[in-house]
Structures are given as structure tokens and as C-alpha cells.
Design brief:
203 residues; globular; single chain; four-stranded parallel β-sheet; alpha/beta
Length: 203
């Protein structure tokens, strides 16, 4: 019957989706493992490989946007992807920021702002974060520290994240800001700007 045929077609489609997603997951895992392996000995080469993957993802977002997202979400996905690519490809025009720093001010100044948390999410999504977590542990940073900051610090210390033009951070939301940014400011020897947001309304 028509219902039976519809059920068969649906099951076939679901099975194909599962196979496709499994294949995609395996490819992503292998890509991440390769980036992590190369990063330990040649971070510049690993960065180029990571950039190649991100540029392919940028093209995929342009040609095959995620239809589950609203148009605004699709637009933001492209903007964030471009910012991450620019941060890695043209660090001399990039500003490393913490979450809640108003990026519009930096964009108006001709800089590409990228947040520690966003880049860490991309690294974790690429399945290569373990190599950088190990790097952070070697440097003696505590495991109780924010995972986003631990991944980013490891990538920065490894060299896969290049030195930015400057950094801007606040005391909002995450105590990791107060460890990550001052440490990398000294490590990179770049200007750092701290926005001290009052805790109380009367301050």
C-alpha cells in the first residue's frame, strides 16, 4: 500500500542519513587527529591544514546553509566563520577578545575581533582539542579552569593560534579571563586593554 511504501522510503532515508552522519563524524575525527598530530611538531603546517578545513566549511555554509536555522542564524554562522578564518590567516589585523567585549568598536577600527570562547568551540568542533589540552596541562594550568580557556591557551602556547595585533578583555562572566589574557599578553608581547565592569550598580 501507499502507507507501507512511505514507511519503507522513510526508513531508507533515515538509514542513509545515519550512514552519512557516521561517515561525516569519522572524517572529522580523522581530520582532527591529523591536525593534533602535526601541531605537536609543526604548528604552522597544522594551522594551514586547519585553515583549509575552515575555508571548505565557509564554502559549504555559502552553498548549503543549515536550513534548520533562521536566515539571521545562517548569516551569523557565515560572519563568525569568516572572523575565525581571518584571525588565523591575518593575525596582524585581528584582536583577541573575551566574550561580552563589544566587537563593533573593533570592527569600526578596522580590526577583526575573535573571542577565545568562539575559537575554542571551533577547535573542539574540529576534534583536535585534546592535543591543546595536553599542552595546557604541561604548562601547569589547573584542570578546574574553564575548558574554553584551557583549549585556547594550549593552542596559543603550541603556536597554532598566531599572535594578534592586540587583546581586549573584561571581568565579566568568566574568571578564566583574568588568567588567560594577562598571561598571553606577556607571552605575545602585545597591547592589552582591560574593561573593568562594576559589579554593583552604585560603583
Amino acid at each position: 500500500t501507499a502507507n507501507n511504501m512511505a514507511n519503507v522510503n522513510t526508513k531508507g532515508y533515515v538509514r542513509q542519513q545515519v550512514v552519512f552522519e557516521d561517515t561525516q563524524y569519522n572524517v572529522l575525527n580523522r581530520f582532527g587527529e591529523k591536525v593534533g598530530e602535526i601541531a605537536e611538531n609543526d604548528p604552522v603546517k597544522a594551522r594551514k591544514l586547519l585553515l583549509a578545513g575552515y575555508r571548505l566549511q565557509e564554502k559549504r555554509l555559502a552553498l548549503f546553509p543549515d536550513r534548520k536555522l533562521p536566515m539571521s542564524g545562517q548569516y551569523v554562522a557565515k560572519i563568525v566563520m569568516n572572523n575565525i578564518i581571518q584571525a588565523l590567516a591575518k593575525p596582524e589585523n585581528a584582536a583577541m577578545v573575551s566574550i561580552f567585549v563589544p566587537g563593533e568598536l573593533l570592527t569600526a577600527a578596522g580590526l577583526t575581533p575573535y573571542s577565545v570562547e568562539a575559537l575554542s568551540c571551533f577547535i573542539a568542533g574540529t576534534k583536535c582539542e585534546q592535543a591543546f589540552l595536553r599542552q595546557t596541562e604541561k604548562e601547569g594550568f589547573p584542570e578546574t579552569m574553564c575548558s574554553y580557556h584551557r583549549v585556547f591557551l594550549g593552542a596559543a602556547l603550541n603556536g597554532i593560534v598566531p599572535k594578534p595585533k592586540c587583546m581586549v578583555y573584561t571581568n565579566l562572566a568568566c574568571d578564566g579571563n583574568m588568567m588567560t589574557f594577562p598571561y598571553l599578553k606577556e607571552k605575545y608581547h602585545v597591547p592589552g586593554f582591560y574593561i573593568d565592569v562594576p559589579y554593583e550598580k552604585n560603583q
